[in-house]
TrEMBL record:
Pfam families: Acetyltransf_1
Name under which the protein is recorded: N-acetyltransferase
Residue ranges constituting the N-acetyltransferase domain according to the UniProt record: 29-189
Region ranges (Disordered): 1-26
Matching Gene3D superfamilies: 3.40.630.30
Gene Ontology MF: a single term: acyltransferase activity, transferring groups other than amino-acyl groups
Length: 189
């Protein structure tokens, strides 16, 4: 079945654009960088976060292809943990000319609606702005950008806008609706 898919591209062009969210109350959420490039951990996060919202673009990648992505200089994965359990993640990709893309961002379904998303996005966006500090020889960040679509969670766009991201492009297209893959086939059937 064909569906209408809207994709919005958003950006920040200065670190002062970032409007951080307050950390969740209780102090049990920490955000840490996954410093050891691991295809397995990255794929776990990708499927756990994106399985119910039809993330499928990477599911056909081989182990080697996935490992190349996580080992790319300037690629970083930041994970939010609640009481030691992964709650969500952000994948950053340093690109040419001082650009950093937030390639993936989201929460595992059980952790949505608990004020973790705004905190994680704020923290990771700040890490996108200071990414060159961790990667000697990389140009300082001059732009942080991302895209979201009409298949993402209902609060995604508002969260990006509250954090100071501005819309710079919108695309509407017809796409074939895909099965919800879940973290494993049939998980959300």
């Amino acid at each position: 079945m064909s569906i209408t898919l809207t994709t919005w591209s958003l950006e920040q062009t200065s670190p002062s654009d970032l409007r951080p969210a307050a950390p969740p109350e209780g102090g049990d959420v920490v955000v840490r960088r996954a410093e050891v490039p691991s295809a397995e951990f990255s794929r776990f996060l990708y499927t756990a976060v994106g399985g119910d919202i039809r993330w499928s673009d990477r599911l056909s990648l081989t182990y080697k292809q996935w490992q190349e992505i996580v080992e790319k200089p300037g690629s970083e994965i930041w994970v939010a943990y609640e009481k030691g359990t992964p709650a969500g993640y952000v994948e950053l990709d340093a690109q040419a000319d001082g650009m950093v893309e937030i390639v993936y961002f989201g929460l595992i379904p059980a952790f949505r609606g608990r004020r973790i998303g705004g905190h994680l996005l704020s923290y990771a966006t700040a890490r996108a702005w200071d990414l060159a500090d961790r990667w000697p020889g990389r140009e300082a960040t001059g732009r942080v950008w991302l895209h979201t679509c009409s298949l993402d969670g209902p609060h995604a766009m508002a969260n990006y806008e509250r954090r100071g991201f501005r819309l710079f492009d919108t695309k509407v297209e017809q796409a074939e609706e895909t099965e919800t893959p879940g973290p494993w086939p049939g998980a959300y059937a």
